[in-house]
Write a structure and sequence with these properties.
By secondary structure, the chain is α+β, with helices and mostly antiparallel strands. The chain has nine helices and 15 strands. It has a five-stranded mixed β-sheet, covered by helices on one side. It has a three-stranded antiparallel β-sheet with strand order 13-7-14. The protein starts with a helix and ends with a helix.
């Protein structure tokens, strides 16, 4: 058995979801595709795919092997291109995970620039506010906010995220603008609720002294929902300034109590320490770090 060919065929079957489509794209008979996958399973003594007359699905072992196979194939292709002296253009699938707030209000709007530079990379973006296990879920990298305590991950700091206290102009026109923290007791508060149901209070800091706002009247477990609540005029809340710059500039949202700030938080890109940093991931990291530097310097 040509193990490398079998690996290429297996990954193509997974990518296309079909033996027939894989055979068409590889320009080989379907029977050859089926035999190579079966030979690979026999060689590994594991089941890579579940096959029925109507459905094809990957097994947990197959999913893990697929991740390794893709990286091996890419490295071999990279080596070939390097030896031949040709310019190597990264290609293949890059799986990214990001919190909803950052994905929908920042990252997605920047991705066309990445695609223009690296058109052969296929991006798969998972939007989730839970902390995924990158290796078992076959995620190449993830955006994380706050301190990274997982020692199995390599963290690349991107930027410091500042908070802004704000409310809609319509809300302030109706309820007035608070001038002191004591005034917040007269206002509706919009807060964040984590997946465990715990509602976080708004935090205000001045000269190393910290205060908490009254319990929120409204709370949401998604950052995007929190911003929508603020824009809908439900009250005063806190979010990352980076994500509401347009709303602040247009006057749709208005900053309040600017002298009191929530402590800043660090935005990082993380990836598994024991996973080889492939060419796709390397260029994505470089691109994202350059983007972050440009944003901080502007």
């Amino acid at each position: 058995m040509d193990q490398l060919l079998a690996m290429r065929v297996f990954t193509k079957v997974v990518d296309t979801g079909s033996f027939n489509k894989a055979a068409e794209q590889l320009n080989i008979p379907r029977s050859t595709v089926s035999k190579l996958v079966q030979d690979l399973e026999n060689h590994l003594t594991i089941k890579l795919l579940h096959r029925t007359t109507r459905q094809l699905s990957i097994t947990p072992e197959g999913k893990e092997y697929y991740g390794y196979a893709v990286r091996i194939i890419e490295e071999l292709d990279f080596a070939k291109q390097a030896v031949l002296g040709r310019r190597y253009q990264p290609s293949g699938v890059l799986h990214i995970e990001a919190p909803s707030l950052l994905a929908e209000h920042w990252l997605i709007s920047k991705l066309p620039d990445f695609h223009r530079q690296f058109p052969d990379i296929k991006l798969r973006l998972t939007i989730s506010d839970r902390i995924a296990h990158l290796i078992s879920e076959n995620v190449d990298c993830a955006l994380r906010i706050g301190q990274i305590t997982d020692e199995s991950l390599i963290a690349r700091p991107l930027m410091t995220l500042d908070f802004v206290n704000c409310a809609s102009s319509a809300y302030l026109a109706h309820f007035g603008t608070p001038q002191t923290l004591a005034d917040l007791s007269l206002h509706q508060i919009v807060g964040y609720q984590n997946d465990n149901g715990k509602v976080k209070s708004l935090i205000f800091v001045l000269n190393d002294e910290q205060w908490q706002a009254p319990a929120p009247h409204f709370a949401c477990n998604k950052g995007t929902g929190l911003i929508a609540m603020l824009k809908a005029g439900l009250g005063i809340g806190q979010t990352f300034r980076l994500l509401v710059q347009d709303e602040l500039a247009s006057g749709e949202l208005v900053e309040v109590l600017p002298q009191y700030c929530h402590p800043t938080m660090l935005l990082s890109l993380v990836y598994p320490a024991n996973r080889h940093k492939n060419a796709r991931l390397a260029v994505f990291i470089d691109w994202l770090m350059a983007l972050s530097r440009d944003m901080q310097s502007s």
